[in-house]
Amino acid sequence: MTAQKTYLPPVSTLQGDWYVIDAADQRLGRLATEIAMILRGKRKPQYTPHLDTGDFVIIVNAEKITVTGKKRSQKLYRRHSGRPGGMKTETFAKLQDRLPERIIEQAVKGMLPKNSLGKQLFTKLKVYAGETHPHAAQQPKELKVNTIPGVEN
């Protein structure tokens, strides 16, 4: 009887492509799941759960992301300084005015593995509030993501 072997993709296929996604008028959660799938490499035939087989993702127009319902005023983002009484809370609307990149970063980070692989995958995510990004030298491809069912971009 032969022992099962763990699949290891060739090293040449591990280097990822670069994609640009426009977050203007996209739903936060649906966009974050698509980004997490691309970062993990789950849509590639050489996907391996314990390896970084994903691609780089650049998000532009992070300040134009949308949420449904009352999440704009009721969704809270918390951070803690580590000191007693150091909990700070902020609503979605206030955080979007102050640091719009952090909203997408936190949503995607929550969908990645909670280990060293997840930390490595998170470094492949680049989020920018405006239209421009400094990654033109990588020749990123435009990627259309439709987060609103029934509506074509």
Structural class: alpha/beta
Q: Please, what is the CATH homologous superfamily? A: Ribosomal protein L13
The level of helicity is: 25-40%
Hey, roughly how much beta strand do the residues contain?
15-25%
CATH fold-level topology: Ribosomal Protein L13p, Chain: A
The order of strands across the largest sheet is: 5-2-1-6
Largest sheet: 4 strands, parallel
- How many angstroms separate the termini? 53 Å
Number of domains: 1
Number of helices: 5
Would you tell me the overall average pLDDT? Answer: 93
Subunit structure: Part of the 50S ribosomal subunit.
Family: Belongs to the universal ribosomal protein uL13 family.
Protein name: Large ribosomal subunit protein uL13
InterPro entries: Ribosomal_uL13, Ribosomal_uL13_bac-type, Ribosomal_uL13_CS, Ribosomal_uL13_sf
Short description:
This protein is 27% helix and 16% strand. The protein contains 5 helices and 6 strands. It starts with 17 loop residues before the first strand and ends in an 11-residue tail after the last strand.
How does this structure look, described?
The mean pLDDT is 93. This protein has one domain (17-142): Ribosomal protein L13 (Ribosomal Protein L13p, Chain: A, Alpha-Beta Complex), CATH 3.90.1180.10. A hairpin with a 6-residue loop joins strand 3 and strand 4. The protein is built from 5 helices and 6 strands, in the order E-H-E-H-E-E-H-H-H-E-E. It is an alpha/beta fold. It has helices spanning 28-40, 71-74, 92-98, 100-109, 116-122; strands at 18-22, 56-60, 76-80, 87-91, 125-127, 141-142. The strands form 2 sheets. Strands 5-2-1-6 form a 4-stranded parallel β-sheet, covered by helices on one side. Helix 1 (28-40) crosses helix 4 (100-109) and helix 3 crosses helix 4.
